[in-house]
């Protein structure tokens, strides 16, 4: 490349403000994305430092006017360099602009005013102060007297308190300072988002299988091996204890560690386990922190004041200078994929960051994503297993109940007879119950209450969605049919779109068990700040017998008195219009089951379903991840869905329906023509069709999908489509977004 785009001020909001420089011949090999360079700047050609954030062969100005880069800066291992090259990689692999990627990796740019801790201190000894006090009393200087009296009790006072509560003016303080009686001091007070725990960590001796994993990892690390590990450990097998052990060793060796966990499980309970062990060498990052708090965590990380950062996706960009390990817990979680450009997956990005700075990665889950498990089986990742809970703690017994049988037996309650009996037992024994209603993506799928049939698209094997115009629509390919008045399979009239809410479950539970104390956790009850924590800690403290909730309650919680988990309608997420629906259902059921019997008391689980023969439910019931994986991979291979293949979603949004629809057709046609002209292999295009969310905020959404084995070919298609739409007049007022291997359908 001949030219480099250089950004001279990364603290600036507008990262688009770049300057083009010529790369001198002798620097060609070293002038890479992210590298820090010295360049002449401004009229006086003053030498300043900047970062390379783009490379090209085309000059943006008259060539004579482009100044050359002076040198590569000595200190080129700067953390910013690493993060900028990471941004370049994200741009190339997830199809965003460099600016979007930079904003993600360098999120806190403006210096936020730092909080200061100001104090007033006595500059004299107690005796001397006493003497001054007597003098001021005689002069009747009331303010000075008040302050001196307090200083005699306590030689260091909080400035704000002195000013506001003691009511001493600034000028009085200044006068006393001039006289050498007091002095004022300020120190930067870093906001620490977590209050220190009062309790200490319970001491855990790792079981032999846990210890073996920790030892193996550390042995490889010491041998200089850097790679990705997948820790597949059943729920409650002690994955977190293994992480803690490994982190302890890494820190002893001066390394820093990032622990990624899904925002939803970033609960007090989880964070405390780390705090109890590592004290204030840990910090957290989450969306609830103020801008100032976030800024402080970045500064603390960069200065080496902390060793461990815990947080969701964004914590991945913590500017640690000496990162040794990235742990990604619950690696299967969909929330690790960003929904806004750059639509990056934190797993792939973590692996790339680790590669850039010589760190290793541990992915952990009881229900690994098919993506990761496939790579582990193929040897790309090292697979560690914890297949049992050890000692007293046993995996729960799982009962699968066929809801069609309940209907036949005239049980119209939402609680099956089995669940009802077990609940009564638990309430008598004063043990706790969790009732889980799986609501994700339930809206709109249509099923028969007599035979359990779910209406699907004949071309896509994806459930149809009912629309208020009385039609059933496939959101993958646009196929439509009339809403039937009876079940096409058994003829029953009980065919309807499905949906039950947590509120209803709570009501029913109250009716059936009037003496039980019930808590409900869902979007409504956790809206206010701290709502989550309040409910969870009330439940942990035994202030309720039953906790009712959505998927929110399944994540990572460890309640020793929970011995029964009821999953009320396991099918609800099975028929989301999404190729990942089965995987997600299996994960939810397994994770929810995993909340039962985590301590000495043994646990039971009841899975209620209309589809007991569905593989997600069968294998979740047996706790058999391997068989589920095999079965689901067959389907992905057959349909060419990830991870058997790759898929790119192209979303076209427009204020005008007509225009948006036309634009999405234009794009698919252009792709075809391009293929023919360039004699490329044919792309496999599905759609275009109106998106599942076909209109949002008065904006119409259309989408199509391209399936392709070769990821690079998908990138090429993206580059073509991107260029095509940016330079065509028909696309005025239309935006096009790309999503690679999407987590949700559009
Ligand atoms: N070796 C051990 N000795 C004593 N207690 C242990 C041991 N290992 C794990 N535990 C305890 O068992 C419980 C479950 O362990 P932990 O939360 O680490 O499991 P996990 O695999 O991370 O669970 P999940 O994936 O379900 O969230 C915790 O209370 C933990 O302290
Ligand atoms: Zn039927
Ligand atoms: Zn279809």
UniProtKB/TrEMBL annotation:
Cofactor note: Binds 2 zinc ions per subunit.
Any single Gene Ontology cellular-component annotation: primosome complex
UniProtKB keywords: ATP-binding, DNA replication, DNA-binding, Helicase, Hydrolase, Isomerase, Metal-binding, Nucleotide-binding, Primosome, Zinc
Protein EC: 5.6.2.4
Enzyme class: isomerase
GO biological process: DNA recombination; DNA replication initiation; DNA replication, synthesis of primer; double-strand break repair
Residues in Helicase C-terminal domain copies: 482-639
Pfam families: Helicase_C, PriA_3primeBD, PriA_C, ResIII, Zn_ribbon_PriA
Regions annotated as coiled coil: none
Cofactors (names): Zn(2+)
Domain Helicase ATP-binding as annotated: residue spans: 220-386
Residues that coordinate or bind Zn(2+) 2: 457, 460, 474, 477
InterPro entries listed in its UniProt record: Helicase/UvrB_N, Helicase_ATP-bd, Helicase_C-like, P-loop_NTPase, PriA, PriA_3primeBD, PriA_3primeBD_sf, PriA_C
CDD domains documented for this protein: DEXHc_priA, SF2_C_priA
GO molecular function ontology, one term from the record: ATP binding
Enzymatic reactions: Couples ATP hydrolysis with the unwinding of duplex DNA by translocating in the 3'-5' direction; ATP + H2O = ADP + phosphate + H(+)
Domain of life assignment: Bacteria
Binding residues annotated for Zn(2+) 1, in chain numbering: 448, 451, 487, 490
Function: Initiates the restart of stalled replication forks, which reloads the replicative helicase on sites other than the origin of replication. Recognizes and binds to abandoned replication forks and remodels them to uncover a helicase loading site. Promotes assembly of the primosome at these replication forks.
Self-association state and partner proteins as the record states: Component of the replication restart primosome.
Protein family per UniProt: Belongs to the helicase family. PriA subfamily.
Protein known as: Replication restart protein PriA
Organism field: Anaerocolumna jejuensis DSM 15929
Taxonomic lineage from the root: Bacteria, Bacillati, Bacillota, Clostridia, Lachnospirales
């Amino acid at each position: 490349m001949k030219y480099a785009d250089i950004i001279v001020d990364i603290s600036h909001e507008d990262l688009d403000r770049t300057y083009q420089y010529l790369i001198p011949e002798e620097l060609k090999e070293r002038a890479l994305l992210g590298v820090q360079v010295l360049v002449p700047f401004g009229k006086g050609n003053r030498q300043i430092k900047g970062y390379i954030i783009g490379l090209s062969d085309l000059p943006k100005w008259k060539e004579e006017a482009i100044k050359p880069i002076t040198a590569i800066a000595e200190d080129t291992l700067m953390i910013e360099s690493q993060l900028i090259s990471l941004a370049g990689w994200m741009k190339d692999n997830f199809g965003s602009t460099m600016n979007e990627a930079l904003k993600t990796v360098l999120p806190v740019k403006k210096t936020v005013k730092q909080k200061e801790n100001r104090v007033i201190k006595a500059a004299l000894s107690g005796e001397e102060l006493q003497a001054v006090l007597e003098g001021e009393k005689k002069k009747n200087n009331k303010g000075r007297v008040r302050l001196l009296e307090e200083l005699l009790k306590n030689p260091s006072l909080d400035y704000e308190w002195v000013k506001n509560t003691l009511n001493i003016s600034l000028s009085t303080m200044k006068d006393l300072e001039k006289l050498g009686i007091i002095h004022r001091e300020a120190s930067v007070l870093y906001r620490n988002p977590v209050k220190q725990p009062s309790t200490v960590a319970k001491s855990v001796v790792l079981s032999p299988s846990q210890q073996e994993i920790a030892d193996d990892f550390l042995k490889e690390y010491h041998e200089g091996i850097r790679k990705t590990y997948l820790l597949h450990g059943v729920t409650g097998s002690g994955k977190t204890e293994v992480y803690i052990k490994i982190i302890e060793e890494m820190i002893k060796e001066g390394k820093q560690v990032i622990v990624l966990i899904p925002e939803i499980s970033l609960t007090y309970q989880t964070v405390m386990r780390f705090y109890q062990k590592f004290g204030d060498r840990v910090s957290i990052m989450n969306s609830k922190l103020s801008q100032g708090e976030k800024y402080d965590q970045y500064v603390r990380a960069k200065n080496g004041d902390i060793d461990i950062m815990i947080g969701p996706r964004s914590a991945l960009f913590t500017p640690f200078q000496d990162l040794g390990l990235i742990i990604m817990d619950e690696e299967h979680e969909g929330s690790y994929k960003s929904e806004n450009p750059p639509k990056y997956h934190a797993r792939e990005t973590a692996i790339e960051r680790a590669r850039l700075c010589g760190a290793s990665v541990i992915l952990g889950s009881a229900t690994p994503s098919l993506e990761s498990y496939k790579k582990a089986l193929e040897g790309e990742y090292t697979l560690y297993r914890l297949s049992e809970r050890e000692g007293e703690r046993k995996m729960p017994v799982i009962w699968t109940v066929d809801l069609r049988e309940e209907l036949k037996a005239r049980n119209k309650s939402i609680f099956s007879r089995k669940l009802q009996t077990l609940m009564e037992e638990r309430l008598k024994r004063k043990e706790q119950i969790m009732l889980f209603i799986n609501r994700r993506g339930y809206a709109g799928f249509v099923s028969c209450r007599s035979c359990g049939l779910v209406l699907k698209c004949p071309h896509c094997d994806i459930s149809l969605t009912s629309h208020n115009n009385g039609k059933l629509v496939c959101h993958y390919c646009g196929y439509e049919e009339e809403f039937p008045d009876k079940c096409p399979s058994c003829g029953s009239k009980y065919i309807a779109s499905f949906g039950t809410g947590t509120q209803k479950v709570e009501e029913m539970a109250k009716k059936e068990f009037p003496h039980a104390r019930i808590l409900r956790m869902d979007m409504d009850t956790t809206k206010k700040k701290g709502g989550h924590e309040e409910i969870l800690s009330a439940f942990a403290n035994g202030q309720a017998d039953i906790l009712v909730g959505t998927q929110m309650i399944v994540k990572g919680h460890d309640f020793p008195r929970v011995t029964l988990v009821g999953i009320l309608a396991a099918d609800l997420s099975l028929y989301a219009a999404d190729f990942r629906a089965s995987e997600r259902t299996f994960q939810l059921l397994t994770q929810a089951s995993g909340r039962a019997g985590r301590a000495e008391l043994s646990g039971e689980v009841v899975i209620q379903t209309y589809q007991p023969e569905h593989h997600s439910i069968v294998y979740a019931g047996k706790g058999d991840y391997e068989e589920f994986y095999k079965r689901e991979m067959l389907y992905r291979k057959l349909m060419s869905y990830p991870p058997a293949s790759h898929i790119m979603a192209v979303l076209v949004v427009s204020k005008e329906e007509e225009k948006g629809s036309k634009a999405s057709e234009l794009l698919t046609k252009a792709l075809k023509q391009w293929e023919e002209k360039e004699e490329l292999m044919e792309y496999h295009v599905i759609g275009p069709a109106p998106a599942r969310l076909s209109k949002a905020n008065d904006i119409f959404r259309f989408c199509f999908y391209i399936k392709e084995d070769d990821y690079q070919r998908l990138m090429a298609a993206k580059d073509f489509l991107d260029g095509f739409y940016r330079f065509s007049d028909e696309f005025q007022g239309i935006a096009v977004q790309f999503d690679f291997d999407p987590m949700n359908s559009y």
